Amino acid sequence: MRFSINILKADPQADIARTWTAARAAPSAQPGFVEAKLHRVYKQLNRDGYSHVSMEAWSSPEACGKVHTTPENLYEIVNQGRSADWAPDPGNLIVTNPYRIPPDEAERHAEMWDTSKRHMETREGFVDAYLFRAVDKNSEYFFVSRAEWRSEDLFMRQFSGKDFKQIVKPFEGIFAICLSHVVATVKPSIQAEVVG
């Protein structure tokens, strides 16, 4: 699979869902388009910087390449985890973290992410998590992570334990932790749904 991920900076109160949905009409009609989701950030825990995250999924790099002709903002999954107890749900909390790091620091950050993922997989309310790596090593964000939780309260419980704090402490300030909800989804064949 291949993903087009865009970190958007706009007025958080602006209704960009309809404009974003309309812009997905042509790509969603292309072979290999899987799905696109727009996340609206409602809370930033440690850094300011963006208001929305757009994620488009494609069945293959070739299908994606027919629409996205430059590697900018293209990603592949390099690690993932899923709960056996919970399925993704449109009302769940989505936590996104874009990482501005040089490529030579990638391995250290990937190890931290894997350790925190294994920790989260054991916690109540965890649904799934993905670590995406930029196809172009010169992309603004080398990694983008996305985790889904049943609620904000269940996610925030991670920060009350010493074990999780020890995992992420050396990396604080490098990535922005943002809480969001999916506000629009586009499926193949131009079937779009705006939920908020």
From TrEMBL:
Keywords noted in UniProt: Monooxygenase, Oxidoreductase, Plasmid
InterPro entries: ABM_dom (IPR007138), Dimeric_a/b-barrel (IPR011008)
Location of the ABM domain: 94-169
Keyword Nucleotide-binding: no
SUPFAM superfamilies: Dimeric alpha+beta barrel
Domain of life of the organism encoding this protein: Bacteria
Single GO MF annotation: monooxygenase activity
Gene3D superfamilies: 3.30.70.100
Keyword Ubl conjugation: no
Transmembrane segments: none
Protein name (Swiss-Prot/TrEMBL): Antibiotic biosynthesis monooxygenase family protein
